[in-house]
Amino acid sequence: MRERQHSAWVIFCFSSAAFIQAGRGSSTSASRSCILLGSAAEEVKYQYQTQKRIKGVVERKMPEKYIREESMIRGPKFVVRLRSHTVFENSAIKLFCSVEGYPTPHVKWFKDDVILDISSGKYFVESSAGFHALTILKCATDDTAMYMAVASNLHGQASSQASIIVKRVKEEEKSIPYSWMPYQYAILPEIKYTKINITFTETFDVTFGKEGDKATLTCKMTINPNLANLQPEALWYRDEHLLKESKWVKMESGEGVAKLSLTQLAKDDEGLYTLRMVTKGGDAVHRAYVYVDDGPPPVPQAPGAPMDIKIHDANRDYVIVSWKPPNTTTEGPIIGYFVDRCEVGTENWVQCNDSPAKICKYPVQGLFEGHSYYFRVRAVNSRGIGRPSRMSEPIAALDPTEFERLHATKLGGRLDVVTYYDDLEAEGKAPGPPSKVCASETDRTYVVLSWVPPVYHSKAPMWYYIEKLQVGAGSWQRVNTKVPIRSPRYAVFDLLEGKDYLFRVVSANMYGISDPSEPTNTITTLQLKGVPSAPGQVVATRETDTSVLIQWAPPKDPNNLIGYYIDSCVKGSKDWTSANHKPHKQTRFVVHGLTTGETYVFRVQAINELGLSEESQESAPLSVRAALKLPSSPYDISLLYCDGESMVLNWKQPIHSGGAEVTDYYIDKCNVAKKTWKEVNIPPIKERLHKVGGLTAGSVYQFRICGANLVGLGDASTPSPSFKCEAWTMPEPGPAYDLTFTEVRDDSLVVEWKAPVYSGAGAITGYHVEKSKKGSDTWSKVNESSVNHCYLKVKGLETGASYVFRVRAENAKGIGMASTPSDPVCVKTLPGTQEIKCGVNEESGDIYLSFESCQMKERSQFVWKKSYQEITDFSKGIVVKTSGSHSTLLFKNPDKEDLGTFSVSVTHTDGVSASYKISAEELEKMLALSYDIRNPIIPLKTELAYKILERGRMRFWLQAEGISSSVTYKFFANNKELVNCEQTKMSHDAATGIIEMVMDHFTEDSEGTFTVQIQDGRAKAQSSLVLIGDAFKAALAEADYQRREYIRVKEGPHFTEFLSIQVGDNASVTLVCKVANLKKESVFQWYKDNVEVIPEVPADLNSGVCKFPLTHFSKKDVGLYKATITDDRGQDVSQIDVSGKAFDDIINELSRISGSSASELSIQCTAEGIMLECHMKYYTEEMKIHWKQKESKITASERMRIGGNPAMATLEIVEPIEKDKGMYTIEIVDPEKTHTRTLDLSGQLYDNAYAEFQRLKAEAYAEKNRGKVVGGLPDVVTIMEKKTLSLTCTVCGDPKPLVSWSKNDQDVEPSDQYVIAMDSGKFASLTIKGVSLEDSGKYTMTVQNKFGGESVDIVVSVYKHGDKIPDIKPTPTPKRIMPPTGPIVIPTTKAATPAPAAAKSPAPAQNAKSPTPPRGMKSPTPTRKK
Predict the structure, then answer these.
(1) Can you tell me the distance from the alpha carbon of 107 to that of 160, in angstroms, rounded to the nearest whole number?
(2) Residue 304 class from Cβ within 10 Å (0-12 exposed, 13-18 middle, 19+ buried)?
(3) What is the distance between the alpha carbons of residues 87 and 1314, in angstroms, rounded to a whole number?
(4) In this structure, are strands 968-973 and 1008-1016 parallel, antiparallel, or unpaired?
(5) Measuring CA to CA, which residue among 913, 1005, 992, 906 is closest to residue 957?
(6) What is the pLDDT of residues 383-393, one digit of tens each?
(7) How far apart are CA 307 and CA 1335, in angstroms?
(8) How many Å apart are CA 819 and CA 751, to the nearest integer?
(9) Burial of 1134 by CB count in 10 Å (0-12 exposed, 13-18 middle, 19+ buried)?
(10) Which residues, in sequence order, are bridge partners of residue 1130?
(11) Per-residue pLDDT tens for 1312-1367?
């Protein structure tokens, strides 16, 4: 820490009105002082003057501080902030503040965020030596506002706010005009204000740039009136943050032009830029987005640059740097970040971290106090290191509390001395403890602590030590053991995530250390929660012809969310591009720069300091088109029913939806007599049918309706006709409504409608449709007889003519009123119209109706109907599949219920629709065709036949017309399925269609029927061959002949007996086979799982019998075994699978042999308990063996260890107790019988066994705790005379053993030459100083306690200087064990901990001896001094 060379500042004062610096004292090694003289009258205000002088000292010394500390810089800081005031009209008010910073900050004044016009004469501004004031000479009520002082210099800006509230005075309290004004000010006339209008003539548009480019935003405008002294002020904002001129931002304004220049683009510059031209009459605003793309990376596919570098908690030797991660849409994931620093005034960037930081925050330590630094960050991925970020604003490494320690001391008379608290006289005392220790910031691996220093009055410098305690783990530990802390704020690093800590602080100086402060409350470090979860549903809506509005749901787990990145992609491609390169904080964003008419999908990623989340689900595809508009107004409001208190209304939807679905409707009503319109509904109406209640009977009403879409509320409709609120009592039905048209062709169309709301005095029995040509008042009936459904196909129309239609409902009482006439419809087929196609899918056999639309829009959907009712029930096997402009209705399980008329219409088109009627005859034909497709037959060229091959093997085969490579088949003999194995090998050839099975042994047992079943996809086939009677005898005779002939003439080495398993009476398991027709060169080999294995006993080829023993058979022997016999004539192979049932059969046989050979139970005691043993021919854990005590099955546990070895099964009772007495039984189970052996462990038998267990336990305890030599001593030591020999080793034992040394069996007594030592109770040593030839010999070290001990021999050989080092080979000598000195007593206070159960242990483990260290090491010969 920098030492303070000048310890006191003393200031002279000549008057109470102002300070004048008279002189500055000379600098000495002890102090620098400036003295202030004060008048006697100031004694009353001593405390006030003291603070004022301290402030004066700080203000005058700050420039010196920066000069003395070279590159130290500091942004503006408000020492005294603005204060709010409440005043009366016509009174004066003065706001003042004090600002420090270097260079000296410049202060601007704002009123409600608008810069004050100082030239108006209403405001007076003062500025002197960091003191700034704003005076309002005569307050008016319009001066009530929020006032702000903004201080700025090269290194940043700061602001302070205060409100002024101006109240009106009562009449009797009004003062004489201008009596408030000081005499030095002239009386000003009333100021008249002029409204200034600004109109933009040219504006900047959305701007796209890359890192490193330059961008200029320009707006041209007209100003009316254009007054030289009332020019508007141009305020520029980025994302609502006011911009100031800097190295990166330049501003120009004047002569009707406002210009913002971004000198070197970085991703920090991306955002929404707003220009506000502020005038007396308000402001004019224009805004547009600026996009900044990543610049070229230094390494291909390296990540982009991080952004928004922030510095937190700057102190005298560390700062904390944070940043935001870049988007990685086209690059690999980020591994971490490197933080670099550069000292101001240099260009040397130094990397701060050796390994990449995983999160977007990093503490930089090791800074030099008083020096200023820039910081930048680089991202790293698997491809390399990316571009560096824009460097941060400079920050100085300073003690933030240095000037808080100033103190004024009265010297007597009129002299004051301003000093630091720690420069006061009070030597020889340790400081008091700090107080109020708390955490001002908590992160994953560090905590920033702050505290209140103790009252201190000593010249000796004071510092602090911080101590930490992890809750529940250990004791207090000092954190800063190397670097003392000077300021009462410090960051403690290297903490564990998610742990609880306590902290306390100790003050110290050269005289001592204070008591610790009170500990903090429990402080829990943050725990890494991971990146945010993926954002929710992404919705894209139209904005302009080149932009789209994206909205999304925030992530469920934000985890300290920073913002979002948005990506776009042309539908059908995988080329994702970044829409923004700087995290966006809101959940809506406008993506610009898109291609008009192109269809895009969008996705969003959330960001926090750990990185990017998973991508959200992609949005629905959206075609980029012009902006959405408000819908047009609804029309044709009709009355469907009235009950005297309410009316049911219906209306037609707007003709123009504005590009978005009209989802909401709002109704207004008007009582014609009152002529006042009122809202009917506050929540929107979703359907075009609504019941309006709360009406007055007998009154006449009009209605108007507004439609709303995603954009907003459209215009209201024209008022409806006047409807009188009278209850309908007529017996005929009310009007139908919602007439629509589908299947418009050149001479026909289909009319659809909805049933009336009011049915009259009876049920509706039918409908009549009437038509009229457009423009005509003549109506004619379309149907002579009524129809009982809500649709009708109208034929015989004139092509190209336009018609309107209306519908009347009928009941038993008559025909009701007509519906509102429909909109005109032109009878003409839409160009490109296609009809529905009906057929059967050739692959699946599904019956389908298929339709392709000649028109498709973005929101178009296919609506399938049956009998003109929309199909909504898909539970009966009806499936709709739509792709682009093509839609198919599939019948998975067609039946007679599917007869009828099916129609389809396409929404948001010019009436694209069609229908198709399925008749009963057509459905029957399609069902037959469907069955044939779903149940095909494989045609066969030949049926199943046989052919006898050499060696008498029988080949069964057939040939199909054609099969695929995925064909499956099964062979059966007498209805028993055959498996594909060595005896019955099956294969097929897809190229020829042949399927065959070769039977290796065709014998008398093979007589019967052979069948093959084939399946290829859905196609099937079956063929059979009968071999019985004479046909079978002929085939068998031919097979025998071919076998004998092959052996006689052609056969090479072969197996006469294939591999089989033999289990011997001695419980041995062996694989056996037999070979024949061998030569001297014949080679026999064994394989397990296709890996060659070599048995201990080679195969006996002389006898032809080959055996492979499976020693100690268990699960390890499971596998596929294969034997081969090979020579130049060929090879024969035999294999057997030892797993599954074969394995179980072997275990069952072993259980039978072992159970019948099992001996009676016997007892074997151990150091841990009593072991019951049952000897048998073989034991393995796979055998079914159960242990019981008193008929209760014993479960293996820590106390009951069940195990054994190949010779016996064991049950070890660890630390037996009284309840362990009783009858014990072992059961050995085979499939036919259960073998049992019993033992009564009680009475004298139990007592003897327990006594033996206690003896062994005591011996084991003594062996564990006796004195031992752990290691460290060599067998032989060679050393030159006059050197010092040190024999050191480690000993152990409980209690601590006694160590003695002897030479040639004579005790070695301690002396000046022989030094015997024992360090920490475990390091024993014998040091011989100045060894001589007489010190050669055998040295013995003996280690012993009450439980016994041991002794070790060391041979020491001393040689003279200059002689050759003797080569003495060590003779290994075993350690000599010494028995206990008395009876062994095991302490009862320590609970005996049973040893862990030895899983599957064949026998109790023997006590392993401690490893012996390597012996025979020689002492190194010291080098000779030159």
Answers:
(1) 11
(2) buried
(3) 98
(4) antiparallel
(5) 992
(6) 899 999 999 98
(7) 76
(8) 13
(9) buried
(10) 1127
(11) 889 998 888 888 999 999 899 888 898 999 999 888 999 998 999 988 888 888 87
- pLDDT score at 12: 34
Choice between 415 and 157, residue whose per-residue pLDDT is larger? 157
Tens of pLDDT, residues 498-550? 889 999 999 988 888 899 999 999 999 887 677 888 999 999 887 887 889 99
pLDDT at 1396: 40
SS3 328: coil
Cα(1205)–Cα(529) distance, integer angstroms = 51
With H, G, I as helix, E, B as strand and everything else as coil, classify residue 96: strand
Q: Cα dist. 1398→1168, 1257, 1268, 1395, 1404 in Å?
A: 12, 18, 27, 8, 8
Task: Measure the CA–CA gap between 431 and 514, rounded to whole angstroms.
Answer: 6
- The partner residues of 151 in beta bridges, in order of sequence, read 107, 158
Range from 411-420, 461-470, 760-769 that averages highest in pLDDT: 760-769
Bridge partners (DSSP) of residue 1395 are none
Helix-then-strand count for the chain, H and E: 5, 102
Q: How far apart are CA 1179 and CA 1067, in angstroms?
A: 9
Considering only the C-alpha atoms of the chain, give the largest distance between any 2 of them, rounded to a whole number of Å: 149
- Under DSSP, is residue 1249 helix (H, G, I), strand (E, B) or coil? helix
> What value does the mean pLDDT take over residues 143-149?
90
Q: How far is CA 882 from CA 593, 816, 851, in A?
A: 31, 42, 10
For residue 1048, what are its two tokens? 């006689």
- Residue pointed to by tokens 């004060």: 38
1328 closest CA partner among 1316, 1346, 1338:
1316
Rounded percentage of the chain residues whose pLDDT exceeds 70: 87
- Quote the tokens at residue 973: 């003999």
Query: With 90 as the cut, is the pLDDT of residue 427 above it?
Result: no
Return the pLDDT at 397.
Answer: 82
Token code pair at residue 614: 């998973």
User: What average pLDDT does the structure give for the chain?
Assistant: 83
- In 3D space, the residue among 581, 528, 584 whose CA is nearest the CA of residue 559 turns out to be 528
Read off the DSSP letter of residue 1036: H
Separation of first and last alpha carbons in the chain: 46
547-552 sheet: strands from edge to edge:
538-544, 547-552, 588-591
Judging by DSSP bridges, how do beta strands 85-88 and 156-167 pair with one another?
parallel
How far is Cα 675 from Cα 668, in angstroms, rounded to an integer?
Answer: 12
1192 CB-near residues (< 8 Å, 6+ apart): none
SS (H, E, C) 1182-1211: CCEEEEEECCEECCCCCCEEEEEECCEEEE
**Beta-sheet strand order (sheet of 307-312):** 307-312, 318-324, 361-365
Between 166 and 49, the higher pLDDT residue: 166
User: Per the structure block, which two tokens stand in for 1224?
Assistant: 């014990």
Strand order across the beta sheet in which 940-948 lies: 940-948, 954-960, 994-999, 984-989
Query: How far is it, in rounded angstroms, from Cα 1245 to Cα 1247?
Result: 6
| 108-128 residue pLDDT tens | 989 888 888 887 778 888 887
857 contacts: CB under 8 Å, gap ≥ 6: 908, 909
Q: Does the pLDDT of residue 182 top 90, yes or no?
A: no
Say what the pLDDT of residue 65 is: 39
1114: confidence class by pLDDT, cuts 50, 70, 90: very high
Q: How far is CA 395 from the centre of its chain?
A: 34
CA 1259 – CA 1251 distance, rounded (Å): 13
Q: Which residue has the higher pLDDT, 370 or 1016?
A: 1016
Nearest to 102 by CA among 150, 148, 67: 67
Quick: pLDDT tens for 905-952.
Answer: 998 888 899 999 999 898 888 888 888 888 888 899 999 999 998 888
Instruction: Say how far apart CA 1149 and CA 1070 lie, in whole Å.
Output: 13
Beta strand 1348-1359 with 1276-1280 is parallel
Q: How many CA atoms lie within 13 A of 400 on its CB side?
A: 15
